[in-house]
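#help-structures

NK: newbie question. if I give both the sequence and a SMILES, will the prediction place the ligand too? trying with zinc ion
OV: yes, paste both and it writes out the complex. here, I ran yours:
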Amino acid sequence: MEKLKNIIICPHCESVIEKKELNKKEVAFCPVCNKKLYESTNCVKYRLFNFSIAMFIFYILSMLLPIIRINIIGYEENLEIINSFIFLFSKGYVFLSLFVFFSVILFPFICIVILFMLSLLFISGFDKKLAKNLLVIITVLKDWCFVDIFLIAILVSVIKLLNVADIDFSVGFWPYILFLSFLVYIVKFLKVESLWEIWGNM
Ligand SMILES: [Zn+2]
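OV: that's the protein plus ligand as structure tokens.
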């Protein structure tokens, strides 16, 4: 069983490969297809720390600054994410406004805080039990962050409104894209499984 733990399957060519311990900053490549397989968990810890700080900055900017400016026959409106749920609520779209509040504003914020705390716990090696609890929360919560769906909804609305309105991406749109890119990178590419692996080595 212990031996099986060190066997991995290359996601690119499906070859079965024996996993080896890596030194700091080392990266393992598949011996068959030569694509990147995994990297030293030390790299991942520090990357998580840097990324969670960058994500926090981009998150705050994208929440406070307007992301889109809409001009319909002289009537100008700036759309801020934080105000969009208040607007939806005031118009009677209670379910939609709560969906935006939890999956676009609150859950991503909790994810950023947890990722930052995890990076600190991983680097310091302090409190393995707390790290486990945080990992359990983020494993569930990451599936409830719909910032990407929100972006698609905005882009679809923009395309539909293009004929009747003058629309510009405002200053908050770019931090939002950057925040989303970091979140997608951590969830889809870095993967929570690799965080569990770091926890196993704590
Ligand atoms: Zn391969």
